[in-house]
Amino acid sequence: MTLRQNRLGRSAVRVSELSFGAAGIGNLYTQVTDGQAEQAVTAAWDAGVRYFDTAPHYGLGLSERRLGAALRERPRDAYTLSTKVGRLLEPAAGDGTDLAAGFAVPATHRRVWDFSADGIRRCLTESLERLGLDRVDIAYLHDPDDHAGQALHEAYPALERLRGEGVLGAIGVGMNQAGPLTRYVRDTDVDAVLVAGRYSLLDQRALTDLLPLAARRGVAVVVGGVFNSGLLADPHPGARFDYAAAPHERLTRALDLRTVCERHAVPLRAAALRFPFGHPAVASVLVGARSAAEAKDAAALFHHRVPDALWAEFKERGLLAPHVPTPTREA
Asked: What integer pLDDT is reported at residue 286 of this predicted model?
């Protein structure tokens, strides 16, 4: 099985349209074994995925260790790997688990925000040690929301220097907010932004400014969170949207979207995965998987045929605004 590869902005880095989010193999919410993690990566690889994303934050480094181990025997030039910077992991003596941060791992370390130039270099060095690899292709500033000044004036220039030295192929910023990402696209020379949850069938805030500006500036957009915390995966009372119980109006809209999908024999998740590619700035959709079954399921959904008539009905029923771009080719 093959997936189309897209160039990441103005860089030479290429990413597969469907990419592997490695938070799940960092024990996000529940534990998985080393074997299950390796099987998830292998299944994604067999499905044609060649872009893998991780971060020190995910399981206090567990995600990086497992992803590096699973990829170590693969030809290094055959895949693209990204990690994130801005959180250092410092040893901690506390007992218990890291579940307060969402990960079912022992709380052996604590996260320390550091967007200084030295902090960025240290973060990358330690990530490479955990990964057991000689390089990463992309480094994203990770959630710099509350550290905007230091991230923009210290961390970003540090990444720019590393890119100039050939240590990195591309640099980017990853956030859950579209507005601050727009500033990076406007005021810096980032190659990519990773926007989570803000460009989906239920939330198109990234379409107001971020996506049009990215298209004009030649910056690639990687879209995460297309299921909006699960509401678009399985809409039902109690389902989550943006990490909290879905408001009634969001649930109603998700159920209406599912009803239209059922008329066209398309799983709602397949439409949610395909939707971002209506915009030309989108290079890849990032989907998390914690098992081989989940990785195979994501690939099957991605390849599911989504007819143009489905997008048209979404708009006819007011579930998408008329100006929202939708994929033009049937997939």
From this structure: 98
